[in-house]
Design a protein that fits this description.
- 2 copies of one chain form a homodimer.
- Chain A has one domain: Orthogonal Bundle (Tetracycline Repressor, domain 2), CATH 1.10.357.10.
- In chain A, helix 5 packs parallel to helix 7.
- Chain A is elongated.
- Helix content of chain A is 63%, strand content 0%.
- Chain A is mainly alpha-helical and 205 residues long.
- Chain A binds a DNA duplex (30 and 30 nucleotides) through helix 3.
Chain lengths: 205, 205
DNA sequence: GGCATTAAATAGTGATCCCTATTAAATTAT
DNA sequence: ATAATTTAATAGGGATCACTATTTAATGCC
């Protein structure tokens, strides 16, 4: 019989996911260096030892908060990108979804990863490497999708899929920067529409 | 007779411009929040009171360092953009120059402005506003050049010059982010070349 | 040399940084 | 009730943060 599964011992003051949600939001808005552990404990309603026993360290909490925040979006975005649609349309919807993420009402502007920890103190180099790796991975996902499109004859065989992926990666990063600066959803999508005119074979050639 | 013009009183330990050069480099590499006043005084070889008497505050020093750093490039870039070349060629050379700036050997990666102070602590909101205003201004410069091209018949009358400017602004911001992550000069220029295929009227239509 | 001037260095300030040794509280099992 | 277990809170440590009141040094002019 599965009992209420209530472990013995003092109950947690906050669930792990609830803590990660709060941390993700703070790091997202203020960045890694701009968010203090005092900010985090205060927002979670806990004291420092609780934070450290739950998450280990500030850096480790950031890693987990990134993972948590990404997990919420990656499923939907993968579905969009790997859908049976033509690769061009899948890419367009994928970029639109990112633009929506950059401009959600009641949430921080921009992307949690695209423009995070670019310039940083030396002591935070390993944190910067985390976000850089995530950016690289997201461009690899695009490249892999484009490679498949080449294999399936949707793109010319000589297409430079790597540059194509890094180009749309740059658009994603630029959108995040402009969203941080206050750009609205419509503007970001105008940007996407223009960027899509660089797609191989569009507009003649 | 113009004497050596040596003022009386104790000579400065470091000239203002030399100090700004060092500050610009540090802020460029580590960002505003990642650079401490101790970093700055140590690199300049001075003590805190000297820094504060010369520059006022950390924020004020950042403002002056940005101004100093921008002044070194803006002249050349304006010449490129306002040259008698066709606007498309001027834009290409302009973007190439920025790519070169993002990947100078022996200098920090990326751009001092394009990806600076995007996420930040609340207390640094006014600093973020400074860099945001500089980004906005640089896109306005592009738009103004494109507007002129429309007037001179180089671009179709119905061209959305604002979106066009924000699109190449996004490319500039994306290049800076990717340069921070280690992208080389060649990669950035491949990106530019692809972005230029979105230029109105290129590749048919 | 002595004075006025200018800018430096000394030696800190209180606040905040990330983090922790220790103690107290809240729960289930006996 | 008592014990065992699990987690939270108290209280503070050492380092660093941006910044400054005060004193000292280095120059040109007389």
């Amino acid at each position: 019989m599965p009992k209420p599964a209530r472990k013995r011992g003092r109950p947690r003051a906050i669930e792990r996911d609830a803590g990660l949600d709060i941390a993700a939001r703070l790091f997202w808005e203020r960045g890694y260096e701009g968010t203090s552990t005092a900010d985090l404990t205060k927002a979670m309603g806990i004291n420092p030892p609780t934070l450290y026993s739950m998450f280990g360290s500030k850096q480790e909490l950031y890693r987990q908060a990134l993972e948590f925040g990404i997990a919420r979006e990656s499923g939907r975005r993968m579905e969009i990108l790997q859908s049976p649609l033509p690769v061009y349309d899948a890419l367009r919807l994928y970029l639109y979804d990112i633009a929506d993420g950059d401009t959600q009402p009641g949430k921080p502007r921009g992307c949690m990863v695209s423009t995070a920890v670019l310039q940083h103190a030396e002591e935070n180099a390993s944190v910067a490497q985390m976000t850089a790796a995530l950016r690289e991975a997201s461009m690899q996902i695009l490249k892999t999708r484009f490679d498949r499109a080449v294999e399936e004859g949707e793109l010319p065989a000589q297409t430079d899929t790597d540059t194509l992926a890094r180009f749309y990666g740059a658009i994603i990063q630029g959108m995040s920067a402009q969203a941080c600066d206050g750009a609205c959803n419509t503007r970001l999508k105008q940007l996407i529409d223009l960027a899509l005119t660089a797609w191989p074979g569009k507009r003649g050639t």
